[in-house]
Structure formats: C-alpha cells, structure tokens
C-alpha cells in the first residue's frame, strides 16, 4: 500500500513524454530530422556530382531518366544539388546561429553582471547595431566584405548578436539580485564561480529559447543573401542561390525554383515547430495547459448546478456550503483537491479550517468566490449560498460585486498580492472606490482611517509608501485594511500569519479578534496551526486530502479529538512549560489526490488502523450537534 502511494505522486511526466504530447512539435521534429539526415548523409548517397553539367539534358522535367527531380539550366542534377545545397544552408545557418548565441550571450552576461559603465558601453554598441534594419545591415556588411558564403555567415552572425545580448542581459540583471546569488557571495565565491555556477545554469533556458526561435530566421536570411547573389557563389549550390537561379525560369521550368523553395519552407516550419515545443517545455508557465490564460471565474460543471436544489441552507447561516467538490483536470488526471466539503458560517462567528499543506484548505476558500484558476480547476458539484443566494453559476458581474465587498480575502503572502508599483494608500483607495460611490479624497480619508485602525504608525505618511518600504507585518496589516475597506460580512483569511514572526502574529490575531467583536464580521480562518485555532476560532473543521475529517467547537475538539489525524496535528503544537513533551511530526506524506486509496485516506499514516479502515468509503459520523468525525473508531475511547 505504502509503496503504491509513494510511487504514484510522481505523476509529472518526463521531459520527452511532455515533448511527445505536443503533436506539432513532434511533426516539426520529424521533418527536421529527415531533412538533416539527408544533408548529413550527402557524401554517402549515390548522387551524381552536383556541379557536373549535362547540356543535352538541360531543364529536364521531374521524374526524367537519370534525373529524379529533373535538371537545371546547365543540366545539373537537381536532386544532387538540392541535397548538397540543403547541407550548405543548414551548416551556414547553424554556425551563424551558434556564433551569434555565444557572442551575444557573452556580451549580455558581462553587461548584466558588471553593470555600470561596462553595461553602458556594451549596450550602446548593441543599440547601434539595432538602429539599422538588420537585413540592410547584413547587405551592407556583405557589400563591404565582398560576396561569398563565409562573409554572408559573418554578416548574419553580427546582425543577430543583439537579440541574444538584449534577452540575456535583461535576465542576468534580474538573476543578479536573487537571494541565492547573495548567498553564494556570502559563502565566499568569486565572480567567475558565481557566473558559471549560479547565473549561467539559470540563463540556459533563455538562451535555448532564443536560439531555437531565431535559427529558422537565420537560415532564411542566409537563403536571402544567396538569392541576391551575395552568399554562395556559382557553381556552389545552396537553397537561396538555387532559388535565385530558378527565378528567371519560373514559367519555362517551374520545378527549378519550386523545389528549393519547398525545402526552405519545410526546414523553417520544422525548426519553428520544434522551437515552440522547446519553449513550452523549458518555460513551465507555458506548459501543461498554462498556454491558456485562466478565466476570471472558476468553471462550474453543468451537473453541479442541476444538483443544487436538493441542498437546503441553514437558516441562521450567512454562508452555507454543501457538498462542494473542486477538481483539477491536468494531463488526463483528475486531482480531487476538494471533495464533498460542507459547512455553515454564522454572523460574528470564526470558523477555522485546519490541515497540513496540500489538504485543500486554500482551494476550498478560493472556490467560494470562483477564484480557483480555470483551467485546470473546475467546480464539479455542490452549492454555496451567501444570504440564501446561490453563488455557483452566478454571472461574473454579480460575483465581482461580492468579491472584496461583501466577502473579502486576506492572503498569506502580502508582498505577492500588493501591486509593487502603487502606493499602499492608493491600493486601499482603489478597493473602496471600486464598490462605493465616493470621491477620491473621501476614499483616501477612509483609507488612512483604516490604516490607523490596523495600527500602522503614522498612517497619513505611510499611505504614500510603496509595499517594499513596509515590513512584513505592516504589509499584512495593509492586506487586512483592504479586506476591511468595504465593511464586509465575511472575511476569508488564508494563513494570514504564517509569514510573520511570533510577536507580530499575536498582534494580527488580536486585531482580527477585535474587529470581529466590533463589527460582527464572520471569519473563515485557514491555518495549519492548532495553536492559532485555539486562540481565535469558535468552531473548527479539520481537512485531510480534500475532505473534512472532523468538526466541532474548538473547545470540544481540543479536549476530546475524535480523529487520529486531529490528535496527531494537535501533538505538533508546543506547550509552554512542557519542554520534555515530544513534538510528534506525523510520519509519511499526505496521499496524492489523483490516486486516493479506497477506505480511509489517512490509514497509511494512522497508529490506530485496522483492516476495516481500508474498505469502501468512510462516512462522516455524526457525534452530536455540530460534531462529527470521519473515523470508524470515533466512538471508541
Ligand atoms: P492547502 O491546504 O495547503 O491550502 P491547497 O488547497 O492549496 O492546499 O491545494 C490542495 C491540492 O490542490 C493540492 O494537492 C495542490 O497540489 C492542488 N492544487 C492547488 N492549486 C492547483 C493548481 N492551480 N493546479 C493544479 N493543482 C492545484
Ligand atoms: Mg494554502
């Protein structure tokens, strides 16, 4: 059992498998492989000399005896010329691309890493190259150096250097400021070791992507120069010069121009498809369905809406959730992140959702306002009622009317959710004016009042500070101020204190507690820490692998936990004055929610497991009003 659950989570497919799923990239790869194989094998193939003239057979059509693809105006064999010509074009394009990549990336890395005057000098030089239309620049370079394949190669390398230099410099500047580079510096590493050990590996994806997307373009440019007679010189064939020679005979013998044209088309399409495939592979944000931008609200399956009628809401609850099921559909796998979750929230009440990381707490909270990204998230069932109004399937404008207004959110990472380019005061003002018809000045006064309220010292001055100018605790208070801005009925707080140190955590908790008492706001508080629950929450709901495993009032659950998982979670909280108490970390890992074992999902990690735990589905046992446990041994002492 354990073996299967530990092997299955590695559901992320390997690099080749993911490339293989991209059918276009595979098709491009096959075309490219076929063309490249022919070009490489040219000396071994039984082909006539590509430059041998055979005047009696000039302009022989395709499929004529001795000339499978016909012959050109000098009677030279087209098949042989096209194979040898492709070889030349591919080689020149590839060498030019590698040269441009190496020189351009080096310039970019040095400029980005050294900064100051080095950066200034190098980038202005690059700017000068970029100031000319690059095909004109290439023409000018070849005109100066004289026509010839080697000079065309130089020209194309030079005009492509800026693309690499610009892309690489930009990323290097960003990487240089990362913490792990600072850490490497602190550990005593020199510039060269940092460059090669820390920065270069992180730059490779950028270089590879730039390379794969410009290679096709460079082969086209080589062909272009040869077409104009500036690249390959007669009698040598390359794709561009063959196209140029065939141009004047287009009406008499179209195959002479068509065949090299077709090969250029195939090569460039092949390279571009493979390049796109590599980019999707290297940049994970673009891969696995991420190519599609998530919509403004979570998709709701039609079935879910049809089933809502049979879900009565509790009359005194402000928020009633019934049988909520939110799944992620990724790579033909179904991740049941939230499965069959029901709860009620009453005005002024604080309900805690507790569970390890990955147990589905955030997805539950985000589902309430349709904030789970689609794709891959879909709400496949259940009902969410706010003041009796069904929220699942509600039109987007109505949902947006509730978001941040009647139901507000406080996120775990305040730096990630605040706009770095706007002052914190303006961000609170924006929240206010979005939902209330007030002037900017009124909103600003209100915003400063809110900042005072969440105890930001000197609020009037701090309103014009940017998020990075505040401490972590102050930023989290701005998050709370924004949540309070429109006097919401419900505040959902998703681990709001996890990123804070203990003293600030205590202050933030006290602040939330006071606000709840003053305004009768309902609070849905998500945490993995039972210590925080005991301070703040009236009732608690324990989640494991997307399901509720225990509910009850905080006092009852703390005094007498009825699920072994709850007991283990509580054992993780240190108690002041009991230093000898062992802090039992829970052994093992939560199961992957795409392959849940039958029976109790906690069975593999449970110290009270019996055979019956692994059979069928374990229901949530009712243990009295508001008290339940998903354990078949819940009634045992
Ligand atoms: P937590 O309880 O720590 O808040 P979450 O609710 O964030 O856990 O996640 C529950 C499960 O849903 C996890 O297994 C996670 O991998 C999965 N999940 C969350 N967000 C996404 C997403 N955008 N795409 C795919 N899977 C996700
Ligand atoms: Mg979370």
UniProtKB/TrEMBL annotation:
Bilayer-spanning residue ranges: 24-45, 88-113, 199-220, 249-275
Main location per the UniProt record: membrane
Bilayer topology: Peripheral membrane protein; Multi-pass membrane protein
GO CC term (a single one): plasma membrane
Keywords: ATP-binding, Cell membrane, Membrane, Nucleotide-binding, Transmembrane, Transmembrane helix, Transport
Keyword hit for Transmembrane: yes
Pfam families: ABC_tran, BPD_transp_1, oligo_HPY, OppC_N
Ranges where the ABC transmembrane type-1 domain occurs: 86-275
Boundaries of every ABC transporter domain copy: 319-570
InterPro entries associated with the record: AAA+_ATPase, ABC_Ni/Peptide_Import, ABC_transporter-like_ATP-bd, ABC_transporter-like_CS, MetI-like, MetI-like_sf, Oligopep_ABC_C, OppC_N
SUPFAM superfamilies according to UniProt: MetI-like, P-loop containing nucleoside triphosphate hydrolases
Any one GO BP annotation for this protein: peptide transport
Subcellular location field: Cell inner membrane; Cell membrane
Domain of life, per lineage: Bacteria
Alphabetical list of PROSITE patterns matching this protein: ABC_TM1, ABC_TRANSPORTER_1, ABC_TRANSPORTER_2
Molecular-function GO terms, alphabetical: ATP binding; ATP hydrolysis activity
NCBIfam families assigned to the protein according to its UniProt record, in alphabetical order: oligo_HPY
Similarity remark: Belongs to the binding-protein-dependent transport system permease family.
Protein name: Peptide ABC transporter permease
């Amino acid at each position: 059992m354990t073996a299967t659950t530990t092997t299955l989570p590695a559901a992320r497919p390997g690099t080749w498998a993911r490339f293989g799923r991209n059918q276009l990239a595979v098709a491009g790869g096959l075309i490219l492989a076929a063309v490249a194989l022919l070009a490489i094998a040219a000396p071994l193939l039984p082909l006539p000399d590509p430059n041998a003239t055979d005047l009696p057979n000039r302009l022989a059509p395709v499929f004529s005896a001795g000339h499978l693809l016909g012959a050109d105006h000098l009677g030279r064999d087209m098949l042989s010329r096209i194979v040898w010509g492709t070889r030349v074009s591919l080689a020149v394009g590839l060498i030019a691309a590698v040269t441009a990549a190496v020189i351009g990336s080096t310039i970019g890395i040095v400029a980005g890493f050294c900064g100051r005057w080095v950066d200034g000098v190098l980038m202005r030089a690059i700017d000068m190259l970029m100031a000319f239309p690059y095909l004109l620049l290439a023409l000018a370079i070849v005109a100066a150096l004289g026509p010839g394949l080697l000079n065309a190669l130089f020209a194309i390398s030079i005009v492509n250097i800026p693309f690499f230099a610009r892309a690489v410099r930009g990323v290097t500047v960003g990487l240089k400021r990362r913490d792990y580079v600072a850490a490497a510096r602190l550990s005593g590493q020199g510039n060269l070791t940092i460059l090669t050990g820390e920065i270069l590996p992180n730059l490779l994806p950028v270089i590879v992507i730039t390379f794969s997307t410009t290679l096709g373009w460079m082969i086209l440019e080589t062909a272009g120069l040869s077409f104009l007679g500036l690249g390959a010189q007669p009698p040598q064939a390359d794709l561009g010069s063959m196209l140029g020679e065939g141009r004047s005979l287009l009406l008499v013998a179209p195959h002479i121009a068509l065949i090299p044209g077709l090969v250029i088309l195939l090569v460039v399409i092949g390279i571009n498809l493979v390049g796109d495939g590599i980019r999707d592979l290297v940049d994970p944000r673009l891969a696995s369905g991420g190519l599609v931008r998530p919509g403004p609200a979570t998709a709701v399956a039609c079935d879910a809406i049809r089933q809502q009628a049979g879900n009565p809401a509790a009359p005194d609850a402000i928020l009633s959730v019934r049988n909520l099921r939110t799944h992620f559909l990724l790579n033909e796998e179904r991740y049941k992140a939230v499965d069959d979750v029901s709860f009620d929230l009453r005005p002024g009440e604080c309900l805690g959702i507790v569970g390890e990381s990955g147990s589905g707490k955030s997805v539950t909270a985000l589902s309430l306002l349709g904030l789970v990204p689609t794709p891959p998230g879909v709400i496949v069932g259940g009902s969410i009622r706010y003041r009796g109004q069904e929220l699942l399937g509600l039109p987007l404008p109505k949902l947006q009317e509730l978001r941040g207004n009647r139901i507000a959110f406080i996120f775990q990472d305040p730096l990630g959710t605040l706009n770095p380019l706007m002052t914190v005061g303006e961000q609170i003002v924006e929240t206010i004016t979005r939902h209330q018809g007030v002037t900017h000045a009124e909103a600003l006064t209100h915003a400063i009042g809110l900042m005072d309220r969440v105890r930001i010292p000197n609020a009037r001055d701090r309103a014009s500070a940017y998020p990075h100018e505040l401490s972590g605790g102050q930023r989290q208070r701005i998050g709370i101020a924004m949540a309070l801005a429109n006097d919401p009925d419900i505040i959902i707080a998703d681990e709001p204190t996890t990123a804070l140190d203990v003293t600030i955590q205590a202050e933030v908790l006290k602040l939330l507690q006071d606000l709840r008492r003053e305004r009768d706001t309902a609070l849905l508080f998500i945490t993995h820490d039972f210590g925080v629950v005991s301070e703040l929450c009236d009732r608690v709901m324990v989640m494991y692998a997307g399901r509720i495993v225990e509910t009850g009032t905080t006092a009852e659950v703390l005094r007498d936990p009825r699920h072994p998982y709850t007991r283990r979670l509580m054992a993780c909280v240190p108690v002041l004055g009991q230093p000898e108490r062992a802090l039992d970390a829970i052994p093992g890992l939560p199961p992957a929610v795409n392959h849940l074992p039958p029976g109790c999902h906690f069975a593999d990690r449970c110290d009270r497991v019996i055979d019956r735990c692994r059979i069928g589905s374990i229901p949530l046992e009712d243990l009295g009003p508001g008290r339940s446990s998903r354990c078949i041994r819940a009634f045992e002492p």
